[in-house]
Amino acid sequence: MSNTEKTRTTVDIYGTQYVILGTENQSHVRQVASLVDKKMREIGSRNPLLDVNKLAVLTAVNAVNDYIKMKEQLERLQSELQKEKD
Fold it and tell me: Self-association or partners: how does it assemble (predicted)?
């Protein structure tokens, strides 16, 4: 599949179906949706009074937090690798 060719993938996140249009393959989109659904259910089970909008925002905050931590770890590892090469 070329980078400009888009596919539609239907996924279920927290009981709602979404059609995702993008260049990633369907397996990747389904994996992402599954992780989002899992995180929303995890947060929702600990906070049952949250409405779905607040739950979605908390899920996004958690995901971005994880992303930033992994990015920082990657940068540290790349820096260490570079030091070993020098």
Answer: Homodimer. Interacts with FtsZ.
Please check whether residue 59 is in contact with residue 36, taking contact to mean a CB–CB distance below 8 angstroms: yes
Strands (E), the chain: 7-13, 16-22
- Locus of tokens 């393959």: 25
Tokens 């990633």 found at: 24
Record the pTM: 0.84
Length of the chain: 86
Question: What are the tens digits of pLDDT across the range 23-40?
Answer: 999 999 999 999 999 999
CA dist., res. 22 & res. 5, Å (int): 8
Distance from C-alpha of 32 to C-alpha of 10, rounded to nearest angstrom: 12
> What CA–CA distances, in Å, run from 67 to 16, 37, 47, 83?
25, 17, 23, 24
Residues whose CB is less than 8 angstroms from the CB of residue 47 and which lie 6 or more positions away in sequence, other chains included: 55, 58
